[in-house]
Design brief:
three-stranded antiparallel β-sheet, three-stranded mixed β-sheet, 5 helices, globular, Arc Repressor Mutant, subunit A, DNA-binding, homodimer
DNA sequence: GTTATTGCAAATTATTTGCACTTGG
DNA sequence: CCAAGTGCAAATAATTTGCAATAAC
């Protein structure tokens, strides 16, 4: 099932509507690989229609996030970045704090970590779609 | 070595100065167990001296964070929360998104996770002082 | 003394909201 | 139709900044 279909289904289930604005934001997100700021998303949205307001983009991103179609992270620069994760299974993201690259990985070792904390601390970590900050291969200092 | 000593040393090393304002902010952080907002920290600071400005609190928290004496997280409510981690070894925090409780844990399983990602993706996760969002024992819904 | 630091007030940035108008179902 | 959604402009919240006065070393 495609993102669009999932989106439509979840909207319907809650009595929400599919508007052109929502379709456009979703289509833009499909074009972006790494995390993107609202500003960046908004600019691309405006290439399609200048009539769409940034508040609508915010509202749509919130909605998509609630539907688990989008994740967001604060990379430490004072605003949220967003990325479409679509119809995929829960997984982890490695987000480079230098270049913003996003590497999606299976839950694998994350699952054991989650189990460990649940067992030992009774704490249920929200690992689904979690992002880990760090440095990707290319952005690591030479020596290390 | 106490937090205060580490702080002083790191300040000196960079030609920075130890001011009463900085000492007060650090002392307040010692009184707080869980993550706290700047507003909360600022209020307590004002109990000691009303002359201290909130911008100074921000500046001091930034400094402490740079020195790895303080961590910050965005718990998803639109602002950063801070916590003193002091002279401790790198470790992980489990932060409850319901009640804000912070559970400090050893790096243990985090280290293997870091090693895993380095090996398989060449990605160096910033695990030091990282926080995992989730639900603590008390805040979990009954059935689960 | 010199220069980092502060308090203040104003600016900036990110995000949210109230509301009259529009539109999807 | 009519409730949900939108654009707009204004509000809010969090954080940052410029600068003259102050104080640490």
């Amino acid at each position: 099932m495609s993102c669009e279909e999932i989106f439509l289904e979840k909207l319907r289930k809650r009595g929400f509507r599919l508007t052109p604005q929502r379709e456009i934001v979703l289509s833009i997100l499909h074009q972006i690989d790494s995390m993107a700021s609202v500003e960046e998303i908004f600019e691309k949205v405006q290439d399609i229609s200048t009539a769409i307001d940034i508040s609508t983009v915010y509202r749509t991103l919130d909605l998509l996030q609630e539907f688990n179609l989008v994740i967001s992270t604060d990379l430490g620069d004072g605003h949220q970045d967003y990325k479409l994760v679509g119809a995929e299974d829960p997984h982890l993201h490695l987000v480079c704090r230098q270049c913003g690259a996003v590497i999606g990985t299976e839950m694998g070792p994350g699952s054991s970590l989650a189990a460990y904390y649940l067992e030992n601390y009774g704490f249920r970590v929200d690992f689904d779609f979690l992002s880990f900050p760090g440095l990707c291969k290319n952005c690591q200092p030479q020596g290390q």
